[in-house]
Amino acid sequence: MTRPSGPDTIGRGGLRTGSLRTRTVLSVLALLTVLLLALCFTVQFVLGERLRAQLEERLQDRASAAAALVGTLSNDDLASRLSAQGLSVLIESPDGGSVVAGPSPEQLRQGPDAAGLGPLGAPGLEEGRPGAGDGSASATGSGTDADSQTSSTSGRTIASSVVTTSDPQIVTLESTLSDDTVLTLSVGAGGVDQTLQQLLWIMLGASAVFLLLAAAALTVVVRGALHPLESMTAVARDIARGDRGRRLRPTRPRTEIGRVAIAFDEMLDGVEGAERAAVDSERLAREAEQRVRSFVSDAAHELRTPVSGMRAAADTLVRASVDRAERERLASHVVREAARASRLIDDMLMMARVDQGLDLRMAPLDIAEVVAREAERQRIRRPALELICTDDRSDLGAGLLDGDAERLSQVIANLVDNAARMTGGAGPVTVAISQAEQTVRVEVRDRGPGVPPQDRSRIFDRLVRLDSARNASGGGAGLGLPIARGIARAHGGDVVCVDPSGGQTGAAFVLTLPVD
């Protein structure tokens, strides 16, 4: 069964929180160790190859010097001189004779080593060359220049050379001379191996000392580099203790720690925003609950009046003997109160639809046509009402907008009804249409008692009626203006109460709607 990975794994198993300082130091030291080991073995390999190459070059030089003396010195004398330098010598003559001198292979592996070869042009072979000294002259049997020239021309040259490394501790050079003499020289490479081994131990020791110094330096450097994380920890603890205003505010936000600090600050901002949102949500929930309770209480109070009237009239009709005229009066009273209760219930249902979101039937329309139709209805309902409609737009009919004609007519009807009640049903009430840039304004003015400035926002709350409205004949339940504002805002506009223009008395309500 595989272990899940990702955020769920971190959430269930916990985040691995090993020491970042220790991880960093160990990682860097491990990398340095690998690099130093690679350097040690590389130097050992390259230097070993170079030393072996120099050893082969010296053997070739000895072979060249020996080739010049072949025919001048006897093979025994030549082999003796070569073996005196620590070389194992094998000289094979063309006639089948051979001379062997010097240490055996086992001795070469143990020593002496290549140090016995000395620098190029060692005296051991130079003394045997013709003209090099008295010993050379006595060996040839003549001290004249002619004899020396003859001896010099009798030297051989190397036709071919082959280096054999079948034994890693012995370097063998096999040279074939121009007269078919085969000269084989061998030397031990033990000194090279010892030198390389000593060098390796020196480098390993130096690397160990270097790693110890690097570990101490890395500890100090990493501690300084991780100091911002300790600062973040201190700030987080201060915030947990209640200092919610603390922030990191990095000076270099593009670095790794800077990005972490910015994310930390953003997280804190989000947490504080969530806390504020939770507090605000709780407050709004309490206010909404209070409004609902107030609305239910006011609605019950508003409904109790017509229901009580209907009940009293019905009891009288049922239990008392009344004449025909009184019966008709009581029946009319029941009808009026039922209509009032029905209107209140309809308004409450409309308010609920506004809260849930109205289903608008949008279509292009001219607000002037909506105002004209509603004005005609009001004149039929209230023949005594003085209703004046004006259109102050410079281009009449140009302000087309997308809206629901029936809903907008309901808004204007509520505003006109409110103005008519405030003027006792006689008016005058003015409905003025104007346009400013991408907005159409419909202003409804009356000459009633007006609305005090401190109450111009409160009157749009549900079931709120001012004293003047309560005393007005046929007063509503206080839902007309909230319904009007809800419909207007569903169209992207609004309804507000403003100061009457021109210093007039009364109230002024403005409906604003966006136009295409």
Counted by DSSP, the helix tally is 15
Low-confidence stretches: 1-9, 119-124, 126-154, 468-474
Return the average pLDDT rounded to an integer.
76
How far apart the termini lie comes to 64 Å
Pattern of helices and strands: HHHEEHHHHEEEHHHHEHEEHEEHHEE
Rg, please?
Answer: 59 Å
Widest sheet: strand ordering: 2-1-5-4-3
Largest sheet composition? 5 strands, antiparallel
Q: What percentage of amino acids are in beta strands? A: 5-15%
Q: Label the overall shape.
A: rod-shaped
User: Portion of residues in helices?
Assistant: 55-70%
Helix vs. strand class: alpha+beta
The overall strand count is: 12
Report a brief summary of the structure.
By secondary structure, the protein is an alpha+beta fold.
Provide an overview of this structure:
With 516 residues, the protein is α+β, with helices and mostly antiparallel strands. The chain has 15 helices and twelve strands. The chain has helices at 7-13, 20-69, 75-83, 105-110, 123-126, 134-140, 145-153, 190-225, 227-240, 256-319, 324-356, 367-381, 405-422, 467-471, 480-490, and strands at 88-92, 98-101, 158-164, 170-177, 182-188, 363-366, 387-391, 400-403, 429-436, 439-446, 494-498, 508-514. The strands form three sheets. It has a five-stranded antiparallel beta sheet. The protein has a five-stranded mixed beta sheet with strand order 7-9-10-12-11. Strands 6-8 form a two-stranded antiparallel sheet. Strand 4 and strand 5 form a beta hairpin. The radius of gyration is 59 Å and the shape is rod-shaped. The protein starts with 6 loop residues before the first helix and ends with a strand.
